[in-house]
Recover the amino acids of this structure.
């Protein structure tokens, strides 16, 4: 009962003004673009994709009278039925809308054919289109159903890592396609899956890359002051100690957008040319001055 009430509360949050004006249009547009890659390119080359849509494609290739859109919908029904008690209400509603949008547009765009004869170019272009579409859906907190929900269920009950489950489920259609459809097409499909995932990641990060920077310097206080005053970025000090000299020191850490990195390095160099700098890529930065936390 408590779980049902919690799900209903989450569903109500998914029906707010922001969702109607921003999130839902993004999910619908993403589902439409995603379907263009599948109907416009993949089907005409008998390529596969990952997850539930990949299984739907394999079934369609084996039984041509079964439409891909309908199979995506039918395969997702038991997944949503099992997963609804284990995911938040808002994620459930947004994922349901993502799945319905994809299924609908797969059904109404069956006439589409993007004429690309070269299979390598076809996989690359389809990967870009699909990555943009799925990225728009995932970026606002939704999904296309399928593997994401299965991964959460298995993680909840059996402590299986979500990433491992997703990789395994995405590999199943490719293996089936290689055995039952066409080995060469399945190998090309690996390229498609990789490109699509890479573009999706790029959409999720918003083309706004950040770098985490560790700075070890005897003049770290002066560097931190200039970072605060000139770059208008925050900084944090960690207590450290030199392994050889055992001299106490302060390690400074800050995060800056990629376009500010060169300016930060110039700033550090002007204060302490001997400073030791370590620059790391960041997957995502959430907090003041960067991205807000999105509640599901």
């Amino acid at each position: 009962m408590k779980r049902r009430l919690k799900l209903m509360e989450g569903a109500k949050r998914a029906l707010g003004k922001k969702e109607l004006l921003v999130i839902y249009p993004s999910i619908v547009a993403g589902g439409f673009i995603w379907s263009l890659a599948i109907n416009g390119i993949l089907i005409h080359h008998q390529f596969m994709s990952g997850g539930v849509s990949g299984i739907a494609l394999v079934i369609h290739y084996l039984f041509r009278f079964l439409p891909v859109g309908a199979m995506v919908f039918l395969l997702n029904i038991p997944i949503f039925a099992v997963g609804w008690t284990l995911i938040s209400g808002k994620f459930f509603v947004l994922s349901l809308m993502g799945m319905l949008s994809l299924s609908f547009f797969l059904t109404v765009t069956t006439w589409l054919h993007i004429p690309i004869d070269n299979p390598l170019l076809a996989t690359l272009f389809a990967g870009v289109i699909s990555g943009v579409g799925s990225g728009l859906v995932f970026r606002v907190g939704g999904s296309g159903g399928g593997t994401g929900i299965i991964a959460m269920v298995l993680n909840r009950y059996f402590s299986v890592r979500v990433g491992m489950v997703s990789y395994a489920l995405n590999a199943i259609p490719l293996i089936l396609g290689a055995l039952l459809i066409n080995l060469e097409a399945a190998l090309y499909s690996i390229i498609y899956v990789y490109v699509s995932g890479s573009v999706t990641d790029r959409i999720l990060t918003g083309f706004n890359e950040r770098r985490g920077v560790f700075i070890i310097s005897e003049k770290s206080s002066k560097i931190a002051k200039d970072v605060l005053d000139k770059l208008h970025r925050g900084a944090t000090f960690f207590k450290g100690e030199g392994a050889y000299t055992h001299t106490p020191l302060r390690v400074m850490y800050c995060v800056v957008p990629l376009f500010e990195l060169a300016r930060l390095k110039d700033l550090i160099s002007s204060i302490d040319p001997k400073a030791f700098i370590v620059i790391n890529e960041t997957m995502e930065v959430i907090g003041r001055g960067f991205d807000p936390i999105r509640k599901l």
User: Anything to note?
Assistant: The radius of gyration is 24 Å.
